[in-house]
Q: What sequence folds into this?
């Protein structure tokens, strides 16, 4: 699809190297608060990128992605909570604070959750799919909000971040590099995935499911696999976020979080590799910047969002890409509607 | 027995409130194909306008009319400014744009009215309680809500089944393109239907004032429940919205009322209450998941 994969890869590596220098720059400029902020952006980038796999490449509008983000977070939180008292979770699973244990555990839990929710939700499509994913995420939200053993509504604090070999994750710069590494690995994985046969089929389902069926491929297993992979990506982000914030609460699963993740994908550029990361950057910076200006920042953010949706030309990622010779003539709303021409008005 | 009756009525009351919101949502979706997340915000606007007018003037009638008018006005403005541009777009754009409007309206309302919840007094004419069966008193106000809800449902049924406007609405839900091709001013119809939906949401908001506290965020809480109602009933179907609203209202209320006792018997301890609260909140989502799995298009699909 893109003409110069080699050049693109070089650009990505350069970008990654530049991003890795950020903590030094922050120290030099005397603004250490930038580093935790950058960690948040990077981690949200992973979550948004994983959502983009189903939203952008698979055409599955999931409104419950925060569920898997929260599941990953709670995996880290609950394993930590069982470490000090020494009583195993459910009497079976001992607590842990080793990132090498908690991260795979989070991926597993996120994947299992996504497999269960996806297997049921993918029986529907269109609006019903949006609503049922939302409903499942809300179910998990209320479940965690009612688990008083793990803090209920108030959430659970993780007093020390997980251990990872000799690395000290309490140090913001180390945390940032670990998160950045995870983002790089995830993007590399997703890039391969999208270009593989699997990715082509997914793209085909987005564009025209009936044709995929007609060419002898059952879409359901592909959609489910994509849904599970995306859920694991979100769980990875959630697990890292809990380490960075040292706190997990039901807010991680709230439906507004799912909405924010969708906003990041759209703001940055749906169906592009770096778009979701740019979107995460834009949203976090916008939020931080507007909060500094006025406590009522949402009054500004809301209309910005509406304007972006109404008039966007493929998100921020489109700014960095050379435009094709001409956009579809007379297409109302420009590039975005065309990119998303798979959408039909009826579910 | 008395408790059960009381809770059944509470469920009915929640059901009619949900119906008022769901009717607008399902009509807007059925006819225009738009998912409007901001329907809950219209409910909030109605509630705040009603509460402010009740506090200033002390008149329940003015509060009711003002609340409804405010919600309808905000709703029509929303349609003209934003939603009109979204009819031809995909669901994703609709979800995001209306999500943006929620952020805006919530924060704007916080700036106008503050974060403190407002409390609205029950109108004097509807104070007190009556004994529905001997020994079981029930608040008159809540009975009035149920009555209004059922009247509105009947009125809506008449409007849709027996008038020219209703005929266009039904035709629009079945085949929009054909209605347009036959020369109906579809834009006017859209704005009217949207205004009607907003008006009903405002009515629910005003009536909710004395029962729940009026605060920012009240809209989203009920919005998601309303979605459950609409999806269970079948998107686009007013009949389905009514059935779904009653079902969800009753299930939610009964679970909240009786699940804690059941769980306390089973596991005991203070954890039982918290867990029962969580499970009761999950109940309607579970109901929706089951309905969708058995009938993916809802109980009364509009486009059958």
A:
């Amino acid at each position: 699809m893109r003409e110069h994969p080699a050049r693109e890869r070089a650009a990505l590596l350069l970008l990654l190297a530049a991003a890795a220098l950020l903590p030094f720059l922050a120290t030099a400029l005397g603004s250490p608060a930038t580093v935790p902020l950058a960690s948040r952006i990077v981690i949200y980038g992973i979550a948004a990128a994983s959502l983009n796999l189903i939203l952008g490449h698979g055409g599955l509008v999931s409104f419950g992605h925060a569920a898997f983000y929260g599941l990953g977070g709670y995996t880290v939180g609950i394993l930590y909570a069982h470490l000090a008292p020494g009583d195993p979770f459910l009497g079976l699973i001992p607590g842990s604070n080793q990132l090498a244990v908690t991260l795979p555990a989070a991926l597993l839990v996120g994947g299992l959750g996504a497999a269960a929710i996806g297997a049921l939700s993918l029986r529907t499509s269109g609006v019903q799919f949006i609503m049922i994913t939302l409903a499942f995420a809300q179910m998990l939200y209320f479940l965690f909000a009612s688990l008083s053993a793990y803090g209920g509504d108030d959430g659970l604090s993780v007093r020390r971040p997980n251990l990872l070999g000799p690395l000290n994750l309490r140090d913001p710069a180390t945390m940032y590099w670990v998160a950045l590494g995870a983002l790089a690995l995830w993007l590399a994985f997703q890039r391969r995935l999208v270009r593989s046969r699997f990715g082509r089929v997914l793209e085909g389902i987005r564009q025209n499911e009936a044709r995929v069926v007609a060419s002898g491929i059952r879409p359901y297993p592909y959609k489910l696999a994509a849904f599970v992979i995306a859920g694991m990506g979100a769980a990875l982000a959630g697990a890292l976020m809990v380490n960075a914030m040292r706190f997990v609460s039901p807010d991680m699963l709230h439906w507004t979080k799912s909405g924010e993740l969708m906003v990041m994908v759209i703001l940055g550029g749906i169906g592009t590799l770096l778009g979701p990361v740019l979107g995460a950057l834009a949203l976090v910076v916008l939020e931080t910047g507007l909060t500094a200006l006025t406590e009522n920042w949402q009054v500004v953010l809301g209309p910005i969002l509406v304007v972006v949706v109404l008039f966007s030309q493929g998100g921020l990622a489109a700014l960095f890409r050379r435009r094709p010779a001409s956009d579809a003539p007379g297409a109302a709303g420009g590039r975005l509607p065309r990119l998303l021409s798979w959408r039909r008005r009826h579910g | 027995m008395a408790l059960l009756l009381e809770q059944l009525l509470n469920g009915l009351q929640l059901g009619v409130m949900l119906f008022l919101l769901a009717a607008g949502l399902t009509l807007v979706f059925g006819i225009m194909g738009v998912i409007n997340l901001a329907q809950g915000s219209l409910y909030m606007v109605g509630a705040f306008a009603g509460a402010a007018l009740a506090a200033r003037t002390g008149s329940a009638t003015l509060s009711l009319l003002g609340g409804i008018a405010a919600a309808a006005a905000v709703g029509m403005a929303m349609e003209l400014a934003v939603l009109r541009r979204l009819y031809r777009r995909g669901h994703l754009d609709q979800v995001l744009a209306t999500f943006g409007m929620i952020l805006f309206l919530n924060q704007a309302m916080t700036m106008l009215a503050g974060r403190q919840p407002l409390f609205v007094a029950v109108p004097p004419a509807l104070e007190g309680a009556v004994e529905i069966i001997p020994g079981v008193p029930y608040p008159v106000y809540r009975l009035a809500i149920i009555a209004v809800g059922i009247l509105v449902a009947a009125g809506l049924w008449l409007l849709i089944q027996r008038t020219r406007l209703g005929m266009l609405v039904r035709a629009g839900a079945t085949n929009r393109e054909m209605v347009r091709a036959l020369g109906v001013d579809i834009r006017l119809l859209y704005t009217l239907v949207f205004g009607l939906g907003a008006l009903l949401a405002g009515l629910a908001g005003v009536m909710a004032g004395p029962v729940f506290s009026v605060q920012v965020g009240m809209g989203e809480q009920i919005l998601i429940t309303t979605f459950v109602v609409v999806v269970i009933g079948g998107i686009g179907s007013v009949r389905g919205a009514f059935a779904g609203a009653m079902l969800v209202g009753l299930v939610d209320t009964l679970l909240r009322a009786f699940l804690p006792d059941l769980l306390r018997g089973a596991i005991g301890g203070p954890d039982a209450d918290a867990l029962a609260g969580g499970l009761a909140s999950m109940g309607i989502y579970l109901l929706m998941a089951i309905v969708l799995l058995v009938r993916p298009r809802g109980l009364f699909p509009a486009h059958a």
Chain A touches chain B through 55 residues (CB under 8 Å). The beta strands of chain A are 156-157, 247-248.
